[in-house]
Amino acid sequence: MLPDVLDRLDLAGIETSCHATTGEGDATREAAEAVRRGYDIIIAAGGDGTLNEVVNGMAGLEHLPPLGIFPMGTTNDFARAMGIPKRWEDYCDLVIENKTRPIDIGKVNGRHFINIAGGGSLTELTYEVPSKLKTMIGQLAYYMKGIEKVASLSPTELIIRADGHGVLEGEFMLFLIANSNSVGGFEKLAPDARIDDGLLDVIAVRKCNLAEFIRLLTMALRGDHFSDPRVVYFKTTRMEVTSPGLVQLNLDGELGGELPGVFEILPSHLRIFA
Fold this sequence. Notes:
GO terms for molecular function: kinase activity. This is Diacylglycerol kinase. Pfam families: DAGK_cat, YegS_C. It comes from Paenibacillus woosongensis. The chain is an alpha+beta fold. It has two domains: 2-103, 3-Layer(aba) Sandwich (Rossmann fold); 112-268, Tumour Suppressor Smad4 (Sandwich). It is built from nine helices and 13 strands. The chain has helices at residues 2-11, 26-36, 48-58, 77-81, 88-96, 125-128, 131-137, 140-150, 210-222; strands spanning 42-46, 67-71, 100-108, 111-113, 116-119, 156-162, 166-178, 200-206, 231-236, 238-242, 248-251, 254-258, 261-273. The strands form two sheets. Strands 3, 4, 5, 6, 7, 8, 9, 10, 11, 12 and 13 form an eleven-stranded antiparallel sheet that branches. The protein has a two-stranded parallel sheet with strand order 1-2. Strand 11 and strand 12 (254-258) form a beta hairpin. Helix 2 packs across helix 3 (48-58). The longest helix is centred in the C-terminal third of the chain and has 13 residues, at 210-222. The model is unreliable at 136-145 (pLDDT under 50).
């Protein structure tokens, strides 16, 4: 599709150049260079992981250009949440017409996320799935890995300090921080999350057995999980999460370091074509 995309933009007077990513961190470096060189538009073609790298190259810099997204990944959670057109022609027209909107982004330990952050054993599955398997069978690869992970789920000791909500302490199966209502293909997991409200939506699941956890997942598909006392939900602008054990962080489906972490919201930090 690339020649057709470039031709459509060129006919509208948008002169483009392309960069094919070659490995981890490449999109971050290239996005930062594009901002430094004063480009008017940056467009990421890929999935949530590619988008995360591009956002990390842009965030915190001055005079940020608007960001476009061609959803070419496995799940494309963020693009789905934003209602980004699947037809490339329609999305090119959005860019040509300069239809943008402001969005918040999250920050933790010097790194940024645009859609989701989290910790706990089940959140590890998105970056443990081999790229070749994702290419071959798409989102089914995550379900296969998820079945494997659920069987070995174990709770983690967490201390959560959130502005306006005091301290939560105990054993949790996982915690998630959502910036939109589409998380891991679950569109009802954080139904009230808004990309431009200046708030992080936090969901934490307290210790439970395997059968109870599977029941909670089923409830989450319907959006009924908030009625369960094991599910903690609140909104905040800043929170700190610590643990006596090793807890890896998931940022937009990619490995994002380890706890402890201080999570913050950067209101209306970027503009995207949507």
